[in-house]
Amino acid sequence: MRENLHCRPFREEDLHLLDGVAEDPTVLGPYAWTGFSSGLRRRWAETGLLTDDGGALAVVDQGEPVGVVSWRKAAYNAASHAWNIGLCMLPEERRRGSGEQAARWLVHYLFAHTQTNRLEAHIDAENIPSRTGIEKVGFVYEGMARGAAFRNGAWRDVCLYGLLREDLRPA
Fold first, then answer.
1. Which of 72, 51, 76 is nearest to 122 (CA)?
2. Distance from CA of residue 87 to its chain's centroid?
3. Domain range for residue 23?
C-alpha cells in the first residue's frame, strides 16, 4: 500500500494526463480506448471536472499524477441514482495495487460525501485484472450486459458490478 497515494482535483500541471487519456490509446488501455476525444481541457477550465452529475480526480503519488478516478450519475428514477465509477492508471502503474487503492479511496469519498446508497462499475468482460481488482474492493458481480459497449469495431460484453453502502468493508 502506497502511503502517499491520494486523489485530488486536477491542476493545470496535471493536464498532460488528460491529454494522454484523450490522445494516446496506451493510456486508457485496450479495454477502455474508444477513439480520440476532445473537450477534457475545456471541461476542466469550465468546471474543474467536478459537477453535480459526476467528476474526475487525479490519482497522485508523491505529488505526481499517476491515474484518474471518475464517477457519473446512473439514474434509476427521478429520486434515486447510483454513481458509476471509473478508473484509469498510467500503464506503468497497472498491476501494482495502486488502482485498487485509488478505487477504495473513491468508494470511501463518495459514501462519505454523497447520499448515494449504491456504486456501480461497468467493466469489459475480457478485462480480468480490473474485474479482479474491483472484487477486491468489495464490489459484487451482478450480471452481464451483452453487446453493450462498442470498442475496436465490435460490440463487447460488459460485466456489471455493484457495491451498497451496507456492503462497505472496514479498511
1. 72
2. 3
3. 6-167
State what percent of residues in the chain have pLDDT above 70. 97
Lookup: cell for 92:
506503468
Kindly report the number of other CB atoms within 10 A of residue 78's CB atom: 6
Phi-psi region of 85 (alpha: psi -120 to 50; beta: other; left: phi over 0): beta
Residues 73, 59: Cα–Cα separation, whole Å: 20
Segment 39-82, tens digit of pLDDT: 888 899 999 999 999 999 999 998 899 999 999 999 999 999 99
Strand partners for 88: 68
Alpha helices in 29-147 (DSSP H): 40-47, 98-113, 128-137
120: in domain:
yes
Residues composing the chain:
171
Check which CATH number belongs to the domain holding 14 and give it: 3.40.630.30
Total number of domains constituting the chain: 1
Work out the angle at residue 43's Cα, subtended by the Cα atoms of residues 40 and 48, and round it to the nearest 5 degrees: 110
Query: Which distant-in-sequence residues (6+ apart) come within 8 Å of 4 by Cβ?
Result: 60, 61, 62, 63
pLDDT of residue 96: 82
In this structure, what C-alpha cell is assigned to residue 24?
494516446
